[in-house]
Design brief:
Elements: E1 4-8, E2 20-27, H1 30-43, E3 47-49, E4 56-57, E5 62-69, E6 74-78, E7 83-89, H2 94-103, E8 128-129, E9 132-133, E10 138-145, E11 151-155, H3 167-170, E12 175-185, H4 195-204, H5 211-225, E13 233-237, E14 243-244, H6 246-255, E15 261-263, E16 269-271, H7 273-279, E17 286-287, E18 290-292, E19 299-302, H8 308-326, E20 335-336
Parallel strand pairs: 2-5, 3-5, 4-20
Antiparallel strand pairs: 1-2, 6-7, 7-12, 8-9, 10-11, 10-12, 13-19, 14-16, 15-16, 17-18, 18-19
Helix pairs in contact: 4-5
This protein binds flavin-adenine dinucleotide.
Length: 337
C-alpha cells in the first residue's frame, strides 16, 4: 500500500475546500483496510474514512491517516427468479452502482439515482431521495471495528437507521464499512408518488414507465434543481428537514398558508427546510466567496476560495434567523471536520 504525506483533499471534497490529509492511503480490499488500521495504530495516528467527500465540510487539515476506499466490485447472487442480493465494495461509485443494477434489469435504486459519493458512505446517513431511503433496500453490511480490529456483519436492524441517520453517523469514525448488500428485484413496484416525479411523468406523457425511465426522470429533476459540484462546489442539502409537533405545524400554517410540509406516520410533521430559508430571503445571498444557491435555498455553495469557517458562519446566520422567525431548530446535514 502506498501511504502519501500532506495530500491535498481539494479534489476529494465536493466543497473544494483547500485542506490536506497528514497521511493518506487508498484501500481496495478488506486486507488493505486491516493493514491501514494496523499501520495507523503502530504510528498512533487517528484514522478517518473519506469516500467521495460529498457530505463533509472540512474546516481544518486532517491529522493522522485518511483512508479512501476504492474499487469497483459489484456481485450479484440470485435468490429467486426475480430477486437478487447485490453486494458492492465501499469504493464503488453510488450512481454507477445504481446504473449497473438497472442495466441488469433490477429495480429498487432508481429513485436514488445521481446521488454523489461512494457505496460505503450510503448507509452512514441512510441516503434518501424522491420517497426512497437506503434502509428500504439494505439487507446487511460488513464493517471493520477500528478500536478492536474485529470484522462485524450488521443486519439492517442493527444499523439503527433513521432519517439521514444511522449508528455509523452517530459513532463517527468507529467503523469502516467495507461492503454493503442490497435486496433488489425485477418485480419491485415503482415508487413514483413524489410530487415532482409524478408531475414530470405526466408532462412527459410516458406510457411505459419502468425503473430505467424513473432513473432518467430523477436525473433530469436533480440536474435542474441541484448544482453539479464539478461546476459549483456544494454538498447538496446543507440542512435536514426539521420535524415538529403537529400543534407547532398548525400554528405556523395559520401564519404562513404556503408552508411546505409532509405529515409523518407518527403524527409529527416534516417541514421543508428549503422553504423556511427561502421565505427569509436567503436564496441567492452571497457573503464573500460562499453563499446560498440561487435556485435552491437548501444548498450552500463555495464560489471558489471560500473556507469551511465562512460557510459555517453563513449556516449559523441562517439557523438563527429560522429559529427567531419560526421557532424551528435547523440541523446541519453534512459532517463537519
Ligand atoms: C449535489 C449533491 C446532491 C446530494 N443529494 C443527496 C440526496 O439526494 N440524498 C442524500 O441522502 N444525500 C445527498 N447528498 C449527500 C451525499 O452525496 C451522500 O451523503 C453520500 O452518501 C456521501 O457519500 P461520500 O462517499 O461522498 O461520503 P463522504 O462525504 O466521503 O463521507 C461522509 C461521512 O461518511 C463517512 N464514511 C465515508 N465512507 C465510509 C465508510 N466506507 N465507512 C464508514 N464511514 C464512511 C465519512 O467518514 C464521513 O463522516 C448530496 C450531495 C451533493 C454534493
Amino acid at each position: 500500500m502506498q501511504f502519501e504525506k500532506n495530500k491535498s483533499l481539494k479534489r476529494l471534497n465536493t466543497l473544494a475546500f483547500e485542506h490536506t490529509a497528514e497521511h493518506f492511503v487508498a484501500a481496495q480490499f478488506d486486507d488493505d483496510l486491516a493493514e491501514a488500521r494496523e499501520h495507523a495504530l503502530k504510528k498512533s495516528w487517528p484514522l478517518f474514512v473519506l469516500g467521495g467527500g460529498s457530505n463533509i465540510v472540512l474546516t481544518q487539515d486532517i491529522k493522522g491517516l485518511v483512508v479512501h476506499p476504492v474499487g469497483a466490485d459489484i456481485n450479484y447472487q440470485s435468490t429467486s427468479k426475480d430477486d437478487v442480493l447485490v453486494t458492492a465494495n465501499a469504493g464503488v461509485n453510488w450512481h454507477e452502482l445504481v446504473l449497473d443494477t438497472l442495466q441488469k434489469g433490477y429495480a429498487g435504486l432508481e429513485n436514488l439515482s445521481l446521488i454523489p459519493g461512494a457505496a460505503g458512505a450510503a448507509p452512514v446517513q441512510n441516503i434518501g431521495a424522491y420517497g426512497v431511503e437506503l434502509n428500504q433496500r439494505l439487507v446487511s453490511l460488513r464493517a471493520l471495528h477500528l478500536p478492536s480490529g474485529e470484522w462485524r456483519t450488521f443486519t439492517n436492524k442493527e444499523c439503527e437507521f433513521g432519517y439521514r441517520n444511522s449508528l455509523f453517523k452517530r459513532l463517527k469514525s468507529e467503523y469502516v464499512i467495507s461492503t454493503i448488500t442490497l435486496k433488489l428485484s425485477k418485480s419491485l413496484p415503482l415508487n413514483t408518488q413524489y410530487a415532482a416525479l409524478q408531475q414530470l411523468i405526466e408532462e412527459s406523457q410516458l406510457t411505459n414507465v419502468d425503473a430505467k425511465a424513473v432513473s432518467r426522470l430523477v436525473c433530469q429533476i436533480r440536474s435542474q434543481k441541484l448544482p453539479d459540484p464539478k461546476v459549483l462546489s456544494n454538498v447538496g442539502s446543507f440542512f435536514q428537514n426539521p420535524i415538529v409537533k403537529k400543534e407547532h405545524y398548525q400554528s405556523l400554517k395559520a401564519k404562513h398558508p404556503n408552508l411546505v410540509a409532509y405529515p409523518q406516520a407518527d403524527g409529527q410533521v416534516k417541514l421543508a427546510a428549503g422553504w423556511l430559508i427561502d421565505t427569509l430571503g436567503f436564496r441567492g445571498k452571497r457573503t464573500g466567496s460562499v453563499g446560498v444557491h440561487d435556485k435552491q435555498a437548501l444548498v450552500l455553495v463555495n464560489f471558489g476560495g471560500g473556507t469551511g469557517e465562512q460557510l459555517l458562519a453563513l449556516a449559523d446566520d441562517i439557523r438563527q434567523c429560522v429559529k427567531r422567525s419560526f421557532d424551528v431548530e435547523l440541523r446541519i446535514e453534512p459532517n463537519v471536520m
